[in-house]
Design goal:
Chain B: Pathway: Protein modification; protein lipoylation via exogenous pathway; protein N(6)-(lipoyl)lysine from lipoate: step 2/2. Chain B: GO terms for molecular function: lipoyltransferase activity. Chain B: Keywords: Acyltransferase, Mitochondrion, Transferase, Transit peptide. Chain B: It is found in: Mitochondrion. Chain B: This is Lipoyl amidotransferase LIPT1, mitochondrial. The complex is a heterodimer of chains A (about 475) and B (about 375). With about 475 residues, chain A is α+β, with helices and mostly antiparallel strands. Among the domains of chain A are: about 45-125, RNA polymerase II/Efflux pump adaptor protein, barrel-sandwich hybrid domain (OB fold (Dihydrolipoamide Acetyltransferase, E2P), Beta Barrel); about 160-195, Irregular (Dihydrolipoamide Transferase); about 270-475, Chloramphenicol acetyltransferase-like domain (Chloramphenicol Acetyltransferase, 2-Layer Sandwich), CATH 3.30.559. Chain A has helices spanning about 10-30, 160-170, 185-200, 220-225, 250-265, 280-295, 300-315, 360-375, 380-385, 450-465, 470-475; strands spanning about 45-50, 60-65, 75, 80-85, 90-95, 100-105, 110-115, 115-125, 150, 155, 270-275, 320-325, 330, 340, 340-345, 350, 350-355, 390-395, 415, 420-425, 430-445. In chain A, the strands form six sheets. In chain A, strands 11, 14, 17, 18, 19, 20 and 21 form a seven-stranded mixed β-sheet that branches. Chain A has a four-stranded antiparallel β-sheet with strand order 1-8-6-3, with no helix packed on it. In chain A, helix 7 (about 300-315) packs across helix 8 (about 360-375) and helix 7 (about 300-315) packs across helix 10 (about 450-465). Mean pLDDT of chain A is about 75; it is low at about 1-45, about 130-155 and about 200-230. By secondary structure, chain B is an alpha+beta fold. Helices cover about 35% and strands about 25% of the residues of chain B. Chain B has a seven-stranded mixed β-sheet, with helices on both faces. A four-stranded antiparallel β-sheet of chain B has the order 13-15-16-17, covered by helices on one side. In chain B, strands 5-4-6 form a three-stranded mixed β-sheet. In chain B, a hairpin with a 3-residue loop joins strand 11 and strand 12. The longest helix of chain B is centred in the middle third of the chain and has 16 residues, at about 225-240. The relative contact order of chain B is 0.14. Classes of the chains: A alpha+beta (about 475), B alpha+beta (about 375). Chains A and B meet through strand 4, strand 5, helix 4, helix 5 and helix 9 of A and strand 11, helix 11, helix 12 and helix 13 of B.
């Protein structure tokens, strides 16, 4: 049943190969041994044609639907090679060999035939192959009928993964002291044994960690239970960092953001920050929250901030303007479409509340609820996301105090709100009281907005927010 | 039927699931019947994955019973745009899932029951499983005219499909699962399984539409619970085990280590949409603008759910050429997804010249493009 075509490069190797073949045949009899020998021969690999195995139910042909590997890839035994489909059944074909893929016999959507070659794999000459006799590949572990193994009349308890580790390192389980439950041998016991033997610190075998191709093992479940019982023997392992850099193209929405932010960079940003005492607003909101809830609306602080901003914009309309590309004309926008920066799975999106100048605080709250639920469902429409004239970013909900927000073109101003902190402050009488303080950081386009304008707008906004009753005087 | 959701049973089950070779005195070896306490399609599909990957089915076969809250489930190699009305799904908050087995698209709700038969690959036998189901149903209601077709469907009254089948085969294990319509919402079923998307060309597995009927319509005294019980009973008889169903919680990480990762993976965009075989969209947008109707030819190639190639044939100068090419460049490589396109288009608008006419044309074009997704 051997179908190896041994390619030998020298006469010396011919002799070695003969030995290889001899060992191979006997190896085939034990279906659960792989690496019986480690020759140091240069891998003059044998190309093995891996045939499509029987699907069952008398099916003779399947359609190739997806390749998980390509020519030149290395594969290990039990790695997935491809997905084929036949009559409502989807089949994952896994590799029987360790080696390198040399040829794919089919393309996507081709019809593949059972019993005919699927891929050519170049296998390392020094490694044995799993039995050809099995029509269906079986991982070696499942052939073991028991997790117990009788050695010298004793039952040695060890999971298949631990056994494999021992086998790979040529350790007899009977010589290892088990520290697990019922003297079960654990991975740590093997490592300890090895450390004592070689005097060196060895990293754990990476194969022992793989869960998917070795599904029958109890390692995953047994480990936490046993860890509680064994005497902790710290095995220091060298920290092996196997992370790799990952490069991805910048696409779609991210690409658009790159363009926007690059354009924003051209705007000279003037920053202005201040501290806002929200003590009164906190109280007001507590009172109004239940009332809003009876009307089906969740009331946060944002509707107040947004309305106050709009009242401020009525006095300083230049902050609600837009500068054209050539900086020739400034357009004062009539509508206050105030954008609210939202953090979603995709990233930063900024839907806006339209015409805040004619909305009540309650209207704004209701609209925010609507935008927030659409935003989290990923269903915001184009009209919600366009037409903004001014933006507020509530970065404080995530954290932070002061920020340096970036203006979103074609707007000319933006405000970032930090988190609310409880800190001591002095009141008019010189007494210390508990104040709810939030920091606001404004950025404005310094080409058309000067510092004084920004400061005055900020002061006005601050006065509305610190003393919500004063908003009543100017509400339209 | 005996349901034992006690803690003791959970421990017993965890032992069974993890050390299948140890013998148990209470039930004979051979088989196990489990039922999910969850109606979340992703969690339940994850359980199937888990059993497929982690259980040794040599000694013990498994029957898994589950039901889902409204969801559309497409086959491994299918194209969701071709199979269902994604817009309607989003509106109605119906979930979309891609299973790992092959076959066609189905609609699940609590009026539909799902049965999964887990065996080794050698014992994979769909016809036997379906015959078991028919036998169970006939034992419950002998007057039912039901039979299994050679396409592995179960038909009622020779005409109406009440069950569809799909299967997954892996290294050593296999599973065959099927649906069974007891009392599903046929109106929603037919409306969500109708794709409005035109101009799609793909080699994805197409579904074969069929007239369906609920068993409830044939006999109003039937309920999903009765059907589940009857099938469990028949399975127990045939496998010579106690007729009792063990409840499992698909969120239980201790019982099913690694299950939450599997659940998460099934919900990722990369799995649900990204695994769509390569397809192309070739259609004509009829955009009503001012007093005329514009015909805009659109051609897109979509691979792994992303737009690989994009061509939009606009009347000359309708949009400034720079803007037109900017849109096409941005769409290329982007997900074939309405949300992605919306945010992309609206973000790009920020760097467009300020011109109301221009903005309204841009929005019109983008909205039409979004409708294709």
């Amino acid at each position: 049943v051997c179908i190896h075509r041994v390619r030998s490069c020298s006469s010396i190797r011919v002799i070695k190969s003969k030995y290889v073949c001899v060992f191979d045949k006997s190896a085939l009899k034990f279906s659960h041994q792989q690496r019986l020998f480690r020759t140091s021969a240069v891998s003059c690999g044998q190309i093995v044609q891996f045939k499509l195995s029987d699907i069952g139910e008398g099916i003779t042909e399947v359609t190739v639907k997806e390749w998980y590997i390509k020519e030149g890839d290395s594969v290990s035994q039990f790695d997935s090679i491809c997905e084929v489909q036949s009559d409502k059944a989807s089949v994952t074909i896994t590799s029987r060999y360790d080696g390198v893929i040399r040829k794919l016999h089919y393309s996507i959507d081709d019809i593949a035939f059972v019993g005919k070659p699927l891929v050519d794999i170049e296998i390392d000459a020094s490694k044995g192959v799993a039995s050809e006799e099995d029509v269906v590949e079986t991982p070696p572990m499942s052939h073991e009928e028991h997790t117990h193994q009788e050695i010298k009349g004793h039952k040695t308890l060890a999971t298949p993964a631990v056994r494999r580790l021992a086998m790979e390192n040529n350790i007899k389980l009977s010589e290892v002291v088990g520290t697990g439950k019922d003297n079960r041998i654990l991975k740590e016991d093997i490592l300890n044994y090895l450390a004592k033997q070689t005097g060196a610190i060895l990293p754990p075998s990476p194969k022992a960690e793989i869960v998917s191709p070795l599904p029958r093992s109890e390692t995953v479940a047994a480990a936490p239970k046993d860890k509680a019982r064994k005497i902790p023997v710290p095995v220091s392992r060298p920290i092996v960092f196997s992370g790799k850099d990952k490069t991805e193209p910048v696409t779609g929405f991210q690409k658009a953001m790159v363009k926007t932010m690059s354009a924003a960079l051209k705007i000279p940003h003037f920053g202005y920050c201040d501290e806002i005492d929200l003590t009164q607003l906190v109280q007001l909101r507590e009172e109004l929250k239940p009332l809003a809830e009876t009307r089906g609306v969740k009331l946060s602080f944002m509707p107040f901030f947004i309305k106050a901003a709009s009242l401020g914009l009525l006095q300083y309309p230049i902050l609600n303007a837009s500068l054209d590309e050539n900086c020739q004309n400034v357009t004062y926008k009539a509508s206050h479409n105030i954008g609210v920066a939202m953090d979603t799975e995709q990233g930063l999106i900024v839907p806006n509340v339209k015409n805040v100048q004619v909305c009540s605080v309650f209207d704004i709250a209701a609209e925010l609820n609507r935008l927030q639920s659409l935003g989290s469902a990923g269903q915001l429409g184009t009209s919600d996301l366009t037409g903004g004239t001014f933006t507020l970013s509530n970065i404080g909900t995530i954290g932070g105090t002061y920020a340096k927000p970036v203006i979103l073109p074609p707007e000319v101003a933006i405000g970032a709100l930090g988190k609310i902190q409880v800190v001591p402050r002095f009141n008019g009488k010189g007494e210390v009281f508990k104040a709810q303080i939030m920091n606001v950081s404004w950025s404005a386009d310094h080409r058309i907005i000067d510092g004084a304008t920004m400061a005055r707008f900020s002061n006005l906004w601050k006065s509305y927010v610190e003393n919500p009753a004063s908003m009543l005087l100017d509400l339209k | 039927m005996v349901l034992r959701p006690s803690l003791k049973n959970c421990l017993w089950l965890s032992c069974v699931l993890r050390t299948p070779k140890a013998g148990f005195k209470s039930t004979a070896c051979g088989a196990l019947i489990i039922q999910s306490v969850s109606n979340d399609v992703y969690q339940n599909l994850a359980v199937e994955d888990w059993i497929h990957d982690h259980m040794d089915l040599e000694k013990k076969q498994v029957l898994f019973l589950w039901r889902n809250s409204p969801a559309v489930v497409i086959g491994r190699h299918q194209n969701p745009w071709q199979e269902c009305n994604l817009r309607l799904l989003r509106q109605k908050n119906i979930k979309l899932a891609r299973r790992r087995s092959g076959g066609g698209t189905v609609y699940h709700d609590l009026g539909n029951i799902n049965l999964t038969f887990f065996t080794t690959r050698k014992k994979y036998e769909r016809m036997e499983n379906l015959k078991l189901v028919v036998k169970a149903l006939k034992a419950l209601r002998p007057q039912l005219d039901i039979h299994v077709t050679d396409r592995y469907d179960i038909l009622l009254d020779r005409h109406y499909k009440i069950s569809g089948t799909a299967a997954k085969l892996g290294g050593t294990s296999a599973y065959h699962h099927c649906t069974l319509l007891c009392n599903a919402d046929k109106f929603v079923l037919s409306s969500v399984l109708k794709s409005p998307y035109k101009g799609l060309k793909s080699n994805a597995t197409p579904s074969v539409p069929a007239s369906v009927k609920n068993l409830f319509e044939e006999d109003p005294t039937l309920t999903s619970e009765m059907l589940l019980d009857a099938i469990a009973k028949e399975y127990a008889t045939q496998h010579q085990i106690d007729h009792h169903i063990t409840l499992i919680n698909p969120a239980d990480e201790t019982l099913l280590p690694g299950i939450n990762n599997k659940t998460k993976e099934l919900q990722t965009w990369e799995w649900v949409y990204g695994k769509t075989p390569k397809f192309s969209v070739s259609t004509c947008l009829n955009m009503a603008y001012k007093d005329s109707v514009l015909d805009v030819k659109v051609n897109m190639d979509v691979k792994h759910g992303r737009i690989e190639v994009c061509n939009i044939d606009l009347p000359e100068q309708w949009l400034p050429p720079a803007l037109h090419s900017e849109l096409v460049k941005s769409l290329t490589g982007s997900k074939f997804c309405p949300n992605e396109t919306t945010t992309l288009a609206t973000t790009l608008l920020r760097v467009c010249p300020h011109d109301d006419e221009l903005h309204s044309r841009w929005n019109l074009l983008c909205e039409n493009m979004i409708m294709l997704m």
